[in-house]
Each structure stands twice: as structure tokens, then as C-alpha cells.
Amino acid sequence: xxxxxxxxxxxxxxxxxxxxxxxxxxxxxxxxxxxxxxxxxxxxxxxxxxxxxxxxxxxxxxxxxxxxxxxxxxxxxxxxxxxxxxxxxxxxxxxxxxxxxxxxxxxxxxxxxxxxxxxxxxxxxxxxxxxxxxx
Length: 135
Known about the structure:
mainly beta; six-stranded antiparallel beta sheet; 6 strands; 1 helix
């Protein structure tokens, strides 16, 4: 099923995450508290002390298998992008993909299930306005 809609950029919001905050859960809580129903993560850098990634490892027919990776190291957020998506009944979905560098310089990434902020993270959100309400 293809779903499309038009959106108009409304404003950009800067959000600084403090040490110990959760990138996904605290972004979700922030969006809810600010009434943000639709947004694009345009930029995010910072550092994390642990990370839970979920990556597709196999796709056959209509079946997708995932692998989860828990990484407990100091890492720099090289990039993170994603969105806050409107859902039915006023709910939202926060979805982030992330690329991080280990101290060795090795780069890893994927779907970010969760990440704990180490020294800080700095995110810009492009808030969107649209008529379509997810159903």
C-alpha cells in the first residue's frame, strides 16, 4: 500500500538532550508534551554510552527477520535521521535511524531502538503541518 500526503514546513525546533536521557523515549515524550504530531529529524549529533540497534538480516516472501545488537561503548553520533509520524487516535510514532562511531573509528548503525546520551546530543526537528490524519 502506498500512502502519500503533502506537508508544509512550519518551524524548526532545537532540542538538546542531557546526559542520561534516552534518545528515542525522550524525543517521543518531548513531541507529546509539545503537541508535535509530524516532524522530520534534520540533524542530530552528540554522544551515547550504549545503543540498541535493530537491523534487517533476512527477507523472504512477506517475512522479515531482524537482529538486535546491544553496544555498550562510548560512541559519537555521526548522524541520526528519522521522523515523528502521526497515527490514528492522536497517537504518534517516533522512528530514528542512527550512525555512530566507536572510539576506533569503526562506524555502525541501523534502526535505533534506544540510546542513552553520554555528554549531550543536539537535534533539529523540522515541524510539518498537513491535512492528512493517519488512519
